[in-house]
Structures are given as C-alpha cells and as structure tokens.
Amino acid sequence: MVKGGNAIAEALVWSRFGAIRYAEATHVHLERKQRWSECFPDVRRLLERGLTVLATEYLDALFARKRVYSEFKRVITQFDVLATPTVSIPAPKIEEVLGNEDGDVRSVLTHNTVYASYIGVPALSIPTLKVEGLPVGVQLIADKFDELKLLEIASLF
Predict the structure, then answer these.
(1) DSSP code at position 90
(2) Residue 101: how many CA atoms within 13 Å on its side-chain side?
(3) For the chain, how many helices (H) and strands (E)?
(4) Domain limits for position 12
(5) Where is the Amidase domain (predicted)?
(6) Is 120 within 8 Å of 20 (Cβ atoms)?
(7) Residue 66 and residue 99: Cα distance in Å, rounded?
(8) Nearest to 12 by CA among 83, 75, 88, 71
(9) Dihedrals phi, psi of 134, to nearest 5 degrees
(10) 114 sits in which H/E element
(11) Contact present, 140 and 81 (Cβ < 8 Å)
C-alpha cells in the first residue's frame, strides 16, 4: 500500500487541473454557447471560466500533467491498480448539493477523482456498501491503456 503521495505532484494537480478542465470543457461546448443559460449555474460558470484561460496557463498545465503522470507511472508499476475511496465523505443528500454547486461539498466530492482525470488514466468507481442507506464506493485506477485489466479486477467485486 502506498500512502500519501508526492506532495509536489498533488500540488501540481490542484493548481493546474482547472486550466485544462475549464479550457477543454469550453472548447467542447462553445458551438452551443447560446444554450449555456440552460445549464446548472455551476456548469455555466465552469464554461465561462474557460473563456478566460490563457494559452500560457493551459500549456503550463499540460507540461505539469506530464510530470504528475511520471510520478504516477513510478507508483503504478508496483501494482495492478490503485484503490482509493471514490469520495472522502459519506454521500450527501441531494438537497445539500443542489443550490450549493460551488460549495465545499462539491469540492470534497470530486477531490479523489481529479487525479485520474487530470493525468488521463482510466478509473472507475465500484459501489461496495451502504452507510445509512447511501452508497460508498471504491475507485480503481489503472495505467493508460490498461482498461481491460481494470474491468477484470472490477468484475471481482
């Protein structure tokens, strides 16, 4: 089991992921900009933020992603997959999230899944049990192009 992780890599993930996430989401949805008003407020704000990402910020984030992936590659070679909690808190009730999309709950809910998204590796969440009737999941993360291995291991649960 690997605990913690490289603090530099984690800092790079959090400081850089936004530039990629915002710019790429905006790029995908730009041709439908006239319909952004129909999106949830947090989604609309994400898309609008993408319009403000500088090319230098985006490129810095891409270069940082390579460094973070190198650290991940060093660790993943020791394992078939990495297992983490999908989220680090019990699942909130929907009314705790709706209307508070930019709040702390959303940030905590996405914290553990950002890493795989940022470095472009496959990950999936498996429901494992319920606590007070709400699901608890385990996220399995594999290396690039190891989707089949990831699915085979997930099928064992």
Answers:
(1) P
(2) 10
(3) 6, 3
(4) 1-78
(5) 34-151
(6) no
(7) 35
(8) 71
(9) -110, 145
(10) helix 104-119
(11) yes
- Partners of 83 in the beta sheet? 140
Structure token pair of residue 100 = 């508070």
Q: Which residues of 41-50 are buried (b: 16+ CB within 10 A; e: fewer)?
A: ebeeebbebb
The helix (run of H) or strand (run of E) holding residue 137 is strand 134-141
Q: Tell me, what amino acid is at 53? A: V
pLDDT bucket at 136, cuts 50 / 70 / 90: confident
What gap in Å lies between CA 72 and CA 62, rounded to an integer? 15
| DSSP β-bridge partners for residue 82 | 141
The answer to whether 134 and 90 are in contact (CB under 8 A) is yes
| Residue 35: how many other CB atoms lie within 10 Å | 9
- Tell me, yes or no, whether 68 and 36 share the same domain: yes
The domain boundary, picked from 52, 78, 104, lies at 78
pTM of the model: 0.78
Structure token pair of residue 144:
């690039």
The rounded distance, in Å, linking the Cα atoms of 155 and 83 is 14
Instruction: Work out the angle at residue 41's Cα, subtended by the Cα atoms of residues 40 and 47, and round it to the nearest 5 degrees.
Output: 90
* Segment 61-92, tens digit of pLDDT: 999 899 889 999 999 999 999 999 998 888 77
Q: Are residues 7 and 18 in the same domain?
A: yes
